[in-house]
Design brief:
Blueprint: H1 2-33, E1 42-47, E2 53-59, E3 65-71, E4 79-84, E5 91-92, E6 100-105, E7 111-116, E8 135-137, E9 142-147, E10 154-155, E11 163-168, E12 174-178, E13 185-189, E14 197-198, E15 205-211, E16 217-223, H2 227-238, E17 241-243, E18 248-253, E19 260-261, E20 269-274, E21 280-285, E22 296-301, E23 308-309, E24 317-322, E25 328-333, E26 344-350
Antiparallel strand pairs: 1-26, 2-3, 3-4, 4-5, 6-7, 7-9, 8-17, 9-10, 11-12, 12-13, 13-14, 15-16, 16-18, 18-19, 20-21, 21-22, 22-23, 24-25, 25-26
Length: 352
């Protein structure tokens, strides 16, 4: 009888092991099926969200969590959520009021940063009509910090105008974009909101800044129009909006000095992020279709050489970020979307 029970247990273990192996094979097959043959730098692609519009997912400094914005569940506009890097334990960490954007972790993993309109406009703002070119509303965002669970909310800015696109350095310094001086420029400030310093002053849009891993450099996107284009840009600023078009990538030292342009292709290049090696930048662009809304991921050296296309999905791939160790990349895509307008968070292993 004992031998029979042992045999049953042994057989049960084999069945369980076979099921686990089959799951792993299927999981890998699904991951690979979401990839295109040309996407040689990506492997083991995993989809982490499966409903709603999800965007701007960024790693914590220890690489264990993600923070992101999403219109999902009962919410009609973006709120801020955190989750584990396998997609589990999704938690709301913003107030649930107004519209939020541009969330980031602080280095200690105990506090978060995000922008929100909830004090000025507790309801969701109106959605702009779809135009041929993308229209980006400049809502009255202010920047807030909170504990990792959303408690102990503290307001850092109070200009009554656009303060957003905030990210944080390894040392806890904040870099962000603001309309406080009449133009869209990049600023830094301390983690408590003190010590605000303007880094850019050329007429036009400067924004989307991210620090390098060592905190010594900043990469950002910019549009510096001239002539009639400048007049159009200023007219749109009065309407509190930016109309999409050309965006080139720049780098500068973290004090604002040594500003250098690294792309000059006339496309809409945005969401740049340094590889941890400090020598390369991953970003999203419609370079392959400058007049369209199809975006893919690209890699470029910090000196502007070595441009390489990374993703080839004929839709939307954007907001890429490397994990702190450079072994993974997270990005937003509409690949595998079940409904129009869906955008999901994907993570892949990085193949150098």
């Amino acid at each position: 009888m004992g031998k029979r029970r042992l045999g049953i247990l042994w057989f049960g273990s084999l069945v369980l092991l076979s099921a686990v192996l089959l799951f792993m094979v299927n999981y890998r097959a699904v991951g690979q099926s979401l990839l295109l043959p040309q996407e040689k730098h990506l492997s083991n692609l995993r989809q982490l969200t499966f409903s709603g519009k999800n965007a701007e997912a960024y790693f914590s400094f220890d690489g264990k969590k993600l923070i992101f914005q999403a219109t999902r569940d009962r919410f009609q506009c973006d709120q801020i959520f955190t989750m584990n890097t396998d997609g589990s334990d999704v938690r709301l960490v913003s107030t649930g009021k107004g519209q939020t954007t541009c969330a980031y972790f602080f280095p200690d993993g105990k506090r978060i940063l995000f922008s929100s309109t909830h004090l000025a406009v507790p309801d969701c703002p109106p959605v702009p009509p779809r135009e041929r070119r993308f229209v980006w509303p400049l809502h009255p965002y202010e920047i807030f910090t909170a504990d990792i669970d959303g408690t102990d909310l503290k307001q850092l800015t109070s200009t009554g105008d656009y303060n957003a696109e905030g990210t944080v350095s390894q040392e806890g310094k904040i870099v962000f974009t603001s309309l406080r001086d009449g133009d869209l420029d990049i600023y830094t400030m301390n983690s408590d909101g003190s010590g605000v310093k303007r880094l850019t002053d050329q007429k036009g849009y400067d924004g989307g800044p991210f620090f390098s891993g060592d905190g010594k450099m900043i990469v950002y996107r910019a549009y510096h129009p001239k002539g009639r284009e400048l007049e159009e840009y200023e007219e749109n600023l009065k309407k509190r909006q930016v109309v999409g078009g050309r965006l080139e990538l720049f780098v500068m030292k973290s004090d604002g000095s040594d500003q250098r342009q690294i792309t000059d292709n006339g496309a809409s290049n945005f969401c740049p992020f340094f590889h941890p090696n400090g020598k390369q930048i991953i970003f999203a662009s419609n370079l392959h279709q400058p007049e369209g809304r199809s975006f893919n991921l690209y890699l470029i050296n910090v000196d502007g050489t070595g441009l390489e296309q990374i993703s080839f999905h004929p839709g939307f791939d954007s907001f890429p970020m490397f994990s702190p160790d450079g072994k993974r990349v997270v990005f937003i895509s509409n690949r595998n979307a079940k409904h129009p307008g869906e955008f999901h968070i994907f993570m892949a292993d990085w193949v150098p």
